[in-house]
Design brief:
heterotetramer; A: 330 residues; alpha/beta; Rossmann fold; five-stranded parallel sheet; 9% strand; B: 338 residues; 2 domains; 13 helices; globular; binds thiamine diphosphate; binds magnesium ion
């Protein structure tokens, strides 16, 4: 990928209004929501570097701070899984480094102008990872972190799958296998516009069992959409079992290559490796980053376990989970 | 070792939850299926990573449980191939995935061939709650009842799930069974509380009259709509208006005779329909179509308003917000009779 | 070099075939699209190997024609992504593939996002003739009209295809345009032959009254159904029965006001609907729903019987065999008025 | 694949009744329908070897006769394309050797008992090749060849896509991308039954752009359905263009291998090579036979041309086509 211009200023720098939840119910245990672990590390709204590129550089230098952001995101995920309706814990935890790296270091986005025409677009095709996305959008400054206290609150916008009423969410997903086709559309539009903007689609591994993914993969490969990147959260588990125990996906890299993609395999919890894989120029083909992750990452007692998929955390479980994620991942 | 036997013995299918409350229709169905599969080796359970069968031991029927992964089109095609080879496949997925994602396979592979596939579709209506519009199924009744050969069933409680599923196994053609997610109130208990005499047993293909009144017919399908109709009948009675309440669990084929007779019995051509579905094409539409064919009738629909329900909240909250409530049914009935 | 200009000049969109007969709606649409794409660079034409654009030269708009191959789900998703990025995509496929194969993408990616995608669906109804049930679309109106935000249009001739497609481009949300396959008779010519005064021009979203009578309303959509209604009106007139004929080209949103006014004007609450669709959920259903909501009305549906049409024959033959005919409309009207 | 038992006798050996076309219209030019080129080469109904295996052996010896069958099938295809509604010419011509080899030499079927429980099942996923299937079923004795005069006759059963009212047709197809999932169902059923019966699914190459094909491919690969065979009619063209010009399918063999299949590549007009590829035992995986074919094969003036896809042959064109196919290929 050639070096790129910073995001063009084309929109008023104001935060879009969040639709007021009609009859918002406060989560019963709101008082118990975790305090920010390290608020100082988070970019303060109103105190932003002038250009996104500059900010990216600044954030990259402060690598240690992004580790804190990742911890904070995990805390927020735990908080949302302690809501009355629970949350998709495991597949959100495995996404944390992927989304933190993308939003804080890779994507050309500006939280104050979420509709900027030349922004990069992220689509969370594995929509059930929404709470990770919400948490990262909040830490990135799209909206106040406190809004997440209203996760799943009746009448509110924070659905268990990405909802466009939430600032920063590009398109709704949740039925698996839709995101890559949407991404092809975005990438085609960018090509028609003569824009260098990118589209990154994040997929689950179980999700790859959907044929619609391969329709889109084949189209992107054939059209040579080199501004399109697919990140596969290869945590090895789907809802009820290991992917290889249900319908095997291996040899996964071969599949993507045979469909016309360049493949990069990385440790999906290593932000440095992710950053490299997500920024290194491509060779005229779309790029699939197979990110080897651990479902439930950060909670050692459920890591790699299928029961981490969805959890409704009680008080004790939440406390335990918060302690675990604050300890950090090795 | 199969846990099917003991489990079935401990919790008879369709019975109340030992913990006290009613059981979710999909759990009732699962336990019954495990029991039936042990006895009938034509039955095959095809899963699509729903998690509904996690930890279930199919015992000697284990080779007839196949998790085909997250691929709903393939699921339907495989079911058709199995059915064409003499099996009776149960396909398990969510209602909207069956009705939209996999629809062409349902139409061409299953309905056109008139094969005995049972599509067991959970998360009907707004049961998915805060999972949002991608998981709501507010279109499925309209779609499924358009397909020739399809039988479309929406039980109103756990007990009816068991009975209707069992009865549906006798049918030679395909069945769409619309289930929910969480447990919903037990209908018999609700009727008992309301002091209404026992309703006739649920029979596939026949409207189930729940109570009789002389002024207006309330026709509903699915758990909360039927409860809303019953609640409305109570309130209407308080206002001196007699309401007949019909549980139209079989949406296709529609039991027009019973419906028509009920309307004729009131002497007033007014029906209020209640459903957890968009207003176009669902139960209200089926009732309007069928009655308008016979004689001029007013049919007022209580349904989820024509839009995507993109706010958080559980099924009951969303239904309340959408106005699928006893109060709305009362309003519409009163307006129509005015 | 672009052939769009000259072609458009030689054969004005919507005009008669220079060879004499009427032109197929899909050809009229294609020529018009090529013309419009040259002038409006938001328009993007997404193909799915339909062959409709073989040999077409898009000229300077060539980069806005993309053949995405035989993958209808991807087609809809790509269209949504393009529309979200400010484009107005036309997706081209057959009616049943849009309505069943790709339905979830239409629902979630396009309708939920309320995006200005135009789904141009050929082979509506039985237009595919002997291609058989896998290519017939007798469910599409029911399905598409169930989806929030969708506008559903079924033009009755080539001229209306051009007009309604052009008008639909103004809409901010999605449109489903149901076209046929071969050319069908020109409506204006048919009316002229029948000695009926000029009908008001076709307007998206408004019922088009074609003739007025005092006894019964005939409401139809699509080429042959509208012709059947007109033929029936002739025959009814001969029998001394006056029929109002409505061309309900926009099935959603339904122009209830005009419909209702027409019924009120006859003084008799009787409507016969005519459509190239299965009986459940389509135009007849929409009309029955809407009128039953307002006042008791009889609505009799003339539609393709509830079954797969698995015999060979062209569209007209199959419709005749299915009983979607002027004679059937006459019978139903007479029966209803008796 | 282990050696197999001949087809078990379990059903009355009577030909199913063909539903009487309601109001059958004779094709206008019926008198002009081609005469059988070499009727003697076709198996006479009522004069069948006792066992299918024996018949297969007999037919295999008479290889020259199968060449004649192929010519006859092409004649019949040309005849149907001369019907009032025309026909899918190119993709039927490319199928001829594939279907002739399958029905006359490979599949364990008995035309007198088309529903025999242990029969092999063929599904024509590229349903628009129906006229090739009808012609082969007729030459194989499922019904009199003369019935094909009624192709596309209004009210008749001979649709442009396989119709189950036609004896020998297993399941209707025509919307592309359905056949392989049906085949997985058949193969699973055979496995549950403990039967050695096979299921062969014939696909178009353009058809492989449908994601549903890859859902089924992945399931078959994962389940190790070694009684399932996919034959891909790799004629390089789809409806409007070359496959590689629309959405590329290459490297095609790699795709199938990566989805868990054993791949065999053959000349799809070489019956010997096809027979070998279709009968050689597999290694626990489903087998994909990529049959390199020529669209429109047998009509040199349209071979490999996209305009061969669909044709309505007039009198002159039919005569020319019949002369060409009678000349034989090479
Ligand atoms: C089309 C569709 N089918 C089924 C589901 C239900 N579902 C939600 S998450 C999930 C498992 C997804 O597995 P994977 O993609 O591996 O995600 P992760 O492991 O990251 O949670 C399933 C089956 C769905 N959301 N969409
Ligand atoms: C789902 C679906 N989309 C589109 C079509 C229309 N169609 C019929 S044949 C064809 C081309 C198929 O190409 P290929 O599979 O390569 O077949 P062949 O070259 O053998 O004719 C298309 C697009 C269809 N039948 N089904
Ligand atoms: Mg996973
Ligand atoms: Mg081909």
């Amino acid at each position: 990928m050639p070096p790129r211009e910073p995001l063009a200023v084309a929109e008023p720098a104001e935060l879009p209004e969040l639709p007021e939840p009609a009859d918002r119910v406060e989560p019963a245990d709101r008082a118990m929501l975790p305090e920010p672990a390290d608020r100082a590390a988070l970019p303060e709204s109103g105190d932003r570097p002038a250009s996104v590129e500059a900010e990216v550089a600044e954030v990259a230098e402060a690598a240690v701070d992004l580790a804190a952001v990742a911890v904070r995101v995990r805390e927020l995920i735990v908080g949302m899984c302690a809501s009355a309706d629970g949350g998709h814990l495991g597949g959100s935890m495995s996404l944390v480094e992927i989304l933190v790296t993308l939003y804080h270091e890779v994507l050309r986005v500006d939280p104050t102008r979420p509709q900027a025409p030349d922004r990069d677009v992220l689509l969370l095709s594995k929509g059930h990872g929404a709470i990770a996305l919400y948490a990262v959008l909040a830490t990135r400054g799209y909206f106040p972190v406190e809004w997440l206290d209203g996760y799943a609150a009746p009448g509110g916008p924070f659905l268990a799958h990405p909802n466009r009423a939430v600032p920063g969410v590009e398109m709704p997903t949740g039925s698996l296998g839709h995101g890559l086709a949407l991404g092809v559309g975005h990438a085609l539009a960018a090509r028609l516009d003569g824009s260098d903007r990118r589209c990154v689609v994040v997929l689950g591994d179980g999700e790859l069992q959907e044929g619609s993914v391969w329709e889109a993969a084949m189209a992107a490969g054939s059209l040579g959409l080199d501004r399109l990147t697919a990140v596969i959260d290869r945590n090895g588990l789907q809802l009820g079992d290991g992917t290889e125990d249900v319908i095997t996906l291996e040899p996964l890299a071969d599949r993507w290559r045979a469909f016309g993609w360049e493949v990069r395999e990385v440790d999906g919890h290593d932000r440095g490796a992710l950053r490299a894989a997500l920024t290194e120029p491509g060779t005229g083909r779309p790029v699939a980053v197979i990110a080897r992750t651990v479902k439930g990452r950060g909670l050692p007692y459920v890591e790699g376990q299928v029961r981490s998929h969805f959890a409704r955390l009680g008080e004790t479980q939440r406390g335990r989970a918060l302690r675990a994620v604050r300890r950090g991942i090795r | 070792m199969s846990t099917a036997g003991p489990a079935a013995a401990a919790v008879p299918a369709g019975a109340a939850n030992p913990a006290g409350g009613p059981r979710a229709g999909r759990d009732v169905y699962r336990d019954l299926l495990v029991e039936l599969m042990a006895a009938d080796d034509r039955l095959v359970c095809l899963d699509s990573d729903t998690g509904l069968f996690s930890g279930v031991d199919f015992g000697s029927a284990g080779d007839r449980y196949v998790n085909l992964g997250i691929a709903e089109q393939n699921l339907m095609g495989v079911a058709a191939g199995l059915a064409r080879s003499g099996r009776i496949p149960m396909v398990n997925t969510m209602a909207t995935f069956a009705s939209t994602r996999a629809l062409e396979a349902v139409k061409v592979d299953i309905a056109f061939n008139d094969l005995p596939v049972r599509i067991v579709a959970t998360h009907g209506g707004l049961a998915a709650g805060h999972l949002g519009p991608t998981h709501h199924a507010l279109e499925d009744l309209a779609i499924m009842r358009t397909l020739p050969n399809m039988t479309v069933v929406a039980p109103a409680d756990g007990d009816a799930c068991a009975r209707l599923f069992r009865q549906s196994l006798e049918l030679p053609g395909p069945v769409y069974l619309r289930l929910g997610r969480a447990a919903t109130p037990d209908l018999a208990a609700t009727l008992a509380t309301a002091g209404v005499p026992d309703a006739p047993p649920v029979r596939l293909g026949r409207v189930q009259p729940l109570r009789t009144g002389g002024d207006v017919v309330l026709a509903a399908c699915g758990p909360y709509p039927v409860l809303a109709a019953l609640g409305a009948a109570d309130e209407l009675a308080r206002r001196g208006i007699g309401a007949t309440v019909l549980n139209v669990h079989t949406v296709r084929p529609l039991d027009v005779e019973t419906l028509d007779a009920a309307v004729l019995a009131t002497g007033r051509p007014v029906v209020v329909t209640v459903e957890e579905h968009w207003p176009s094409g669902g139960l209200g539409s089926a009732v309007a179509e069928a009655l308008a064919e016979r004689r001029p009738t007013r049919v007022l629909r209580v349904a989820v308003p024509d839009g995507f329900v993109a706010v958080a909240g559980d099924q009951r909250y969303l239904l309340e917000r959408a106005g699928v409530t006893a109060a709305a049914v009362v309003d519409r009935a009163v307006a129509a009779l005015r």
